[in-house]
Amino acid sequence: MEKRNKFSGSFGFVLAAAGSAVGLGNIWRFPALAARNGGGLFLIVYLVLALTFGFTLLITEVAIGRKTNQSSLTAYGKLNKKFGWLGIISAIVPFLILPYYCIVGGWVLKYAVAFIMGQGSKAADTQYFLDFLGDPVWTILFDFIFLAATCFIVFRGVNKGIESLSKILMPILLVLVIGIAIFSLTIKNKETGVTGLEGFKYYVVPNVDGYTFGDYFRVVMDAMTQLFYSISVAMGIMVTYGSYYKKDDNLVKSVNHIEIFDTIVAFLAGVMIIPAVYVFMGKEGMTGGAGLVFIVIPKVFDSMGAVGQFVGVLFFLMVLFAALTSSISVLEAVVSGMIDKFGMERKKAVISEGLIAMVIGVIICLGYYSKSIFYMEVDLPNGQKGQQLLDVVDYLANNIFMPVVAIGTCILIGWIAKPKTVIDEATINGERFGRKLLYKAMITVVAPILLTLILLVSLGIIKLKA
Questions:
Q1: Which of 129, 147, 113, 92 is nearest to 362 (CA)?
Q2: pTM of the full predicted structure?
Q3: C-alpha separations of 282 from 35, 179, 193, 274, 286 in Å
Q4: 407 closest CA partner among 47, 60, 23, 20
Q5: Which residues of 20-47 are buried (b: 16+ CB within 10 A; e: fewer)?
Q6: Which of 63, 12, 93 is nearest to 337 (CA)?
Q7: What's the pLDDT tens digit per position in 333-376?
Q8: Segment (H or E) for 325
Q9: How many CB atoms lie within 10 A of CB 110?
């Protein structure tokens, strides 16, 4: 078995972990959820949950990885042999996510190329995206390119690949996010007179007129679900990255930095998107998911005129960087598991998983092609109607397996191995664990209850008000 690499220091770890956390969910889900959930109210709830719920899950997984020096596939079993099953489920999650994440990364690459080639107005047509999805040749081609880039970086290893790329892309990504956010605040619709600052007010000022208990419950559930997906927990990534984290580095401080970075980018994503959409399309233009990034935002850029073409290039490059830093962490979680469990060389593990992801990716791409045997329109238990194969795989990974992994982790650390396992690992060099009492309460009682609520909503047992 090859010698386990380590991040060169806290800075490299934080950037790599933040790169994993900052992904498409921050960009196409957070702004839409904030817009539909009372603006500033959602932001406050999200921040509170980040400091409590998010901190608990994040530091637990990083500590498990560093303590066991293993990826998630084998780490849980090393802590307690009866929880080896949890490692298997946690390894299934990134295995399922990688193929379709690279497909979506291919979509982002397609739009980045379109704007770079000056085809922003063409890309603003709704039919442009639909035609692209319905053409398996092009979707598969861009999927392969994005997957190949992901494999190449992971192939280079922890230091030369993941850490080196994160140190380059994450500062650039942050500069682009800040720059586009500032620009978004300065725009004005010449026809209506609506300004970006009015859109910013719509984003940050709480609007709870007529809210019922059910509405407040939905806000909390949406914020919690978004945070749960955003910080990259329950998919083996943070356990794996934790196993590359040196014993003499300050774990608590690094986790705090990851939280801060992820929350800032999520907030700024809203500043980038909500004012711009509000100015040109009104609050009715806010939507979530792929529709926001690939249909609504290109229309907004087209409405800006010539400057929109340039901003569109920067925006899609930023989204591309976010998607790439996330996809390499997903692949690394799988590859690290193959190395730890089966003693494979990194080269063979990357090639093997890359080929598997390629095959699954082709099948999922064909799922959008109406003449393919893989084409489907499925209604999911969580209320989503007419979903394709990609959405079904995403639902299984994100809405079923991830909550199960997180609940299992809370049971293992909260009740079997005890919170002291994580606290001792986090303070191994005498560091201060400032939220110790909060952590114990969260990992043993509060987090398992909240995660169970997420699972019940995903299964359609609890239905949120639209």
A1: 147
A2: 0.96
A3: 11, 22, 12, 9, 8
A4: 60
A5: bbbbbbbbbbbbbbbbbbbbbbbbebbb
A6: 93
A7: 999 999 999 999 999 999 999 999 999 999 999 999 888 999 99
A8: helix 306-342
A9: 22
